[in-house]
Amino acid sequence: MAQRRSPFNLSTCARPNILALEPYRCARDDYKDDGTNILLDANENAYGPGLNVDKLQGASSNGSVASKEDLEVDLLGLNRYPDPHQTELKQLLCDLRNTDSNTSTPLTPANLFVGVGSDEAIDNLLRAFCRPNHDKILVCPPTYGMYTVSAQINDIALVKVPLLPPTFSLDLPALTLALADPTIKLLYLCSPGNPTGTTLPPSAIETLLSHPTWNGVLVLDEAYIDFAPDGASAAPLVTEHPNLVVLQTLSKAFGLAGIRLGAAFTSPQIATLLNALKAPYNVSTPTSQLARAALRPAHLETMRANRARILAQRDRLVAALPQIPGVGGFLGGFDANFVLVQILSAPGGTPCNETALRVYERLAEGRGVVVRFRGREWGCGGCLRVTVGTEREVDRFLGELGGVLGEVYGERGREGDEGKAGSGSKGDAGDEERREEAASKVVG
Ligand SMILES: Cc1ncc(COP(=O)(O)O)c(C=O)c1O
């Protein structure tokens, strides 16, 4: 059919910063969860949802026994819009964190925003505080990519103050200096960090919160906090600091990435802003129902048992990886459900992006084991980020990694010999650049 003539021109009508966006790539675009792959790339919970589905009882009881009703979606109620306030869900989230309490004032539902994953809160904070094309956010690479993606979508400029490798601690003097810029409205920090696995010390957070001139908000993303030692969450501190937001999610330790439920703990004033600007029915009825179930004692037991299994497998990875020839050191810390590990140019060599990229590609394409190449992130040269899987997945990963490294070094040796004889190929630097870029574009 012939196109109608129209004054409409997408390229001048849509916002330039939106036209400039690259199509969003996420973990499951590249390697599917079709049962053939071992997915150690998106920091999901390999042991499954934190829901006690094995020992369901017929009837609800005092809350310590999982009940069928907890998990049954009220199908006949789906014609009605969900509760826009989600007070019961918010209270359960407060109950979870009030036990960690390092403050005398308990959290209440007035301290909360709940949304479609913590990604919704990341974006809503930008919309609440930053004027497009005017204000800025401050991020500390290497960090979670969604802060940058959301900033681009909202036409907000980025200031970067990198973390200090190899521990990835905060550069407090540089941050203090940067926060003198009055157009910086938000500082996004991640603790435990992605991809660093490092928990930031409360003293550093307190130092930033008491900056002498900065009129802005510190957003502390605690997506992985339940893998850190108990009591590490800064959520209770929001009752003392009007400029603190703590993000959490049910996607990681709770194993519920599929329901999309994230939370922002903050002052009642900021929570009011976030709740005012959200879409009214952002949390669906099934999501709310499953989230509330997951936060009840009988189901929390399952989450805690799964978490203990993940921590045991994390310890195994930390002990076993350095035994494989060609695996270098770990960077960052071990407070999340992943590790960041260097791959070397040769056994005993130096961290090497080319080798790490080859290993990443061969693991995924030849052997169905998908990890994440992070070698282009600040301070992460030669690094792969590996999500902790089940015991069987960790076995498989360790075996395949040893095999792939042997293969890659063997080929490298033969290429070297051929090179000496004058017929070898040194590889195409442009091609490697493109492959590294493609492997780095996935957000998460
Ligand atoms: C640091 C960090 N924050 C937030 C998220 C997104 O979480 P959600 O699934 O709640 O949107 C992720 C996901 O990988 C993450 O790594």
Automatic annotation (TrEMBL):
* Chain residue ranges for the region called Disordered: 410-444
UniProt EC number:
2.6.1.9
Q: Which CDD domains does the UniProt entry name for this protein?
A: AAT_like
One GO biological-process annotation of the entry reads:
L-histidine biosynthetic process
- Compositional bias (Basic and acidic residues): 410-420, 428-444
The reaction(s) catalysed by this protein are: L-histidinol phosphate + 2-oxoglutarate = 3-(imidazol-4-yl)-2-oxopropyl phosphate + L-glutamate
User: Pathway it acts in?
Assistant: Amino-acid biosynthesis; L-histidine biosynthesis; L-histidine from 5-phospho-alpha-D-ribose 1-diphosphate: step 7/9
Keywords of the record: Amino-acid biosynthesis, Aminotransferase, Histidine biosynthesis, Pyridoxal phosphate, Transferase
Q: Name one GO molecular function term.
A: pyridoxal phosphate binding
Keyword Coiled coil attributed: no
Q: What is this protein called?
A: histidinol-phosphate transaminase
The scientific name of the source species is Patellaria atrata CBS 101060
